């Protein structure tokens, strides 16, 4: 192809194209606009502007651990860590189930570590399912995260954050709904903006927030063990008395505990940005799950040292009740600590999910603009903006907490498909380099367990599960129209290209690994 000297272009993956400014948009004008802006920055002394646009490998092992721990430990351990106790009835059996759930989550995470080390590509379970079963199943996994798990989870967390920040200001009544939504929207906007500006800042912020929530839990643990040291051990005498050992109760208790560890899979979305992912991904997963399991177990022991099982079950916020009975002065601080903990979950979710959607767009399963990276900040700004928009939309729903129930069903489906895909890849691609290779019996057993979890989800939440199936089913026509149907009318393609060019100019982005030249 003839190309004039000095013509603004994008180089990608070693090729030069004068008509490919973004993924699948044939966008010369987008690259021209970005290149002209880069020239202006260069002329103004902005020497730090990168001329190769790509995400950097800058997330360390410590930051990786902080991301996983920060996502897993949200408000649950402070507010209502009683899902297990409700079903098994006793202190001793409750502690056993917390340990079992932590062990099971760790085994699941090890399977993800094997897949992440073998397929070192960002996107996590979406990439694994797509590689094992093909385009359409992979798209449905992406669709579940896009319309259910990500926006609903972040929206609900932001509203919980707002509730606990405003709670001290409205001690005798519920905070106004408008104030809740305004503050929830503000925190999401601030954290998404932080992620847009600098990945390293966001990761360091996650380390700080995770340290704060661990300090809060350590404070609870220390107080609880002080109570034990004073001889308050009545709740631990005959701790297995009245235990419900029925299979149904244990299964439902396990189900409740398993979801308390949700978030261990999210680091796999960031694989390409990890420093030495083949080493640090499995290390971070093992360290994180160990930390969370120990902290959850010991924190519950601390709660039981001060509160009776009936007091825990009756409390609307266990950590607040705990503070009231130990150091009342801490009661006013506890809601703030809960809010900080939730803020860490929001930040970690935004950081990881943005990479999932970016990868989906690179695979042509989402609009190409979502795959692009800010030319100066080197962050997936379009993906983050989409997450913010979807989250703000979900915050407007009155029944947002009803939609949370859909997340359990959606993740159960994804988890089942991942383990099935891992087993299938062992036989279809035996030559695949696997730095970590677990016994095949492990994913087989976990596949069976995930099927049980899926069945329990349907049993426990039949209406929500049916609605979840309908949500997932909407992905089929979306896939046919926007992915499978490639030869759209020229008029439609031109309109799409024009709109994508406009967005690229507005967001100042280029495709990953693109290189604006002639600067």
TrEMBL record:
Molecular function GO labels: L-amino acid transmembrane transporter activity
UniProt xrefs under Pfam families: AA_permease_2 (PF13520)
Entry's transmembrane regions: 64-84, 96-115, 136-166, 178-200, 207-228, 248-269, 281-306, 326-346, 400-425, 437-459, 465-485
Gene3D superfamilies attached to this UniProt entry: Amino acid/polyamine transporter I (1.20.1740.10)
Bilayer topology annotation: Multi-pass membrane protein
Compartment annotation: Cell membrane
Stretches the record annotates as Disordered: 1-21
Listed InterPro entries: AA/rel_permease1, AminoAcid_Transporter
GO cellular component entries: plasma membrane
Principal cellular location given in the protein's record: membrane
Ranges of Polar residues composition bias in the record: 10-21
Keyword annotations of the record: Cell membrane, Membrane, Transmembrane, Transmembrane helix, Transport
Family, as annotated: Belongs to the amino acid-polyamine-organocation (APC) superfamily. L-type amino acid transporter (LAT) (TC 2.A.3.8) family.
PANTHER family registered for this protein in UniProt: AMINO ACID TRANSPORTER, AMINO ACID TRANSPORTER PROTEIN JHI-21
Protein name according to UniProt: Uncharacterized protein
Organism for this UniProt entry: Dreissena polymorpha
Higher taxonomy: Eukaryota, Metazoa, Spiralia, Lophotrochozoa, Mollusca
């Amino acid at each position: 192809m003839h190309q004039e000297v000095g013509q603004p272009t994008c180089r990608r993956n070693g090729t030069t194209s004068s008509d490919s400014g973004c993924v699948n948009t044939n966008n010369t004008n987008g690259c021209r606009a970005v290149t002209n802006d880069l020239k202006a920055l260069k002329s103004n002394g902005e020497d730090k502007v990168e001329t190769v646009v790509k995400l950097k490998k800058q997330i360390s092992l410590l930051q990786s651990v902080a991301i996983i721990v920060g996502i897993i430990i949200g408000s649950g351990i402070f507010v209502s860590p009683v899902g297990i106790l409700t079903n098994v009835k006793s202190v001793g059996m409750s502690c056993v189930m917390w340990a079992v759930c932590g062990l099971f989550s760790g085994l699941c995470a090890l399977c993800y570590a094997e897949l992440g080390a073998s397929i070192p590509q960002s996107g996590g379970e979406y990439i694994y399912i797509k590689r094992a079963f093909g385009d359409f199943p992979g798209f449905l996994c992406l669709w579940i995260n896009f319309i259910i798990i990500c926006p609903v989870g972040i929206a609900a967390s932001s509203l919980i954050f707002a509730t606990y920040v405003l709670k001290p200001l409205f001690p005798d009544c519920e905070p106004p709904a408008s104030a809740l939504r305004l503050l929830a929207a503000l925190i999401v906007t601030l954290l998404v903006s932080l992620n847009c500006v600098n990945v390293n800042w966001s990761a360091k912020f996650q380390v700080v927030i995770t340290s704060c929530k661990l300090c809060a839990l350590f404070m609870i643990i220390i107080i609880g063990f002080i109570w034990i040291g004073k001889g308050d051990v009545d709740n631990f005498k005959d701790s297995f008395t009245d235990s419900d050992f029925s299979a149904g109760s244990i299964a439902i208790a396990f189900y409740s505990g398993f979801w308390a560890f949700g978030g261990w899979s999210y680091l796999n979305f960031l694989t390409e940005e990890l420093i030495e992912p083949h080493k640090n991904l499995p290390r971070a997963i093992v360290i994180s799950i160990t930390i969370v399991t120990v902290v959850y177990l010991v924190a519950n022991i601390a709660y039981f040292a001060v509160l009776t099982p009936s007091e825990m079950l009756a409390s609307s916020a266990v950590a607040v009740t705990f503070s009231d009975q130990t150091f009342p002065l801490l009661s006013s601080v506890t809601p703030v600590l809960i809010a900080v903990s939730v803020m860490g979950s929001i930040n970690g979710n935004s950081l990881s999910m943005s990479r999932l959607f970016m990868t989906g767009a690179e695979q042509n399963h989402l609009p190409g603009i979502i795959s692009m990276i800010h030319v100066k900040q080197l962050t997936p700004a379009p993906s983050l903006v989409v997450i913010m928009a979807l989250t703000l939309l979900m915050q407007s729903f009155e029944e947002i907490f009803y939609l949370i129930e859909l997340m359990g069903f959606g993740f159960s489906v994804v988890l089942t498909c991942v383990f099935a895909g891992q087993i299938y890849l062992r036989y279809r691609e035996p030559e695949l380099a696997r730095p970590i290779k677990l016994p095949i019996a492990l994913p087989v057993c976990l596949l069976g367990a995930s099927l049980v979890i899926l069945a329990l989800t349907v049993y426990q939440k039949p209406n929500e599960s049916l609605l979840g199936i309908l949500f997932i089913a909407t992905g089929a026509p979306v896939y046919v129209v926007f992915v499978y149907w490639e030869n759209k009318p020229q008029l439609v393609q031109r309109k799409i290209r024009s709109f994508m060019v406009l967005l690229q100019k507005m967001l100042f982005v280029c495709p990953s690994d693109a290189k604006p030249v002639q600067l």
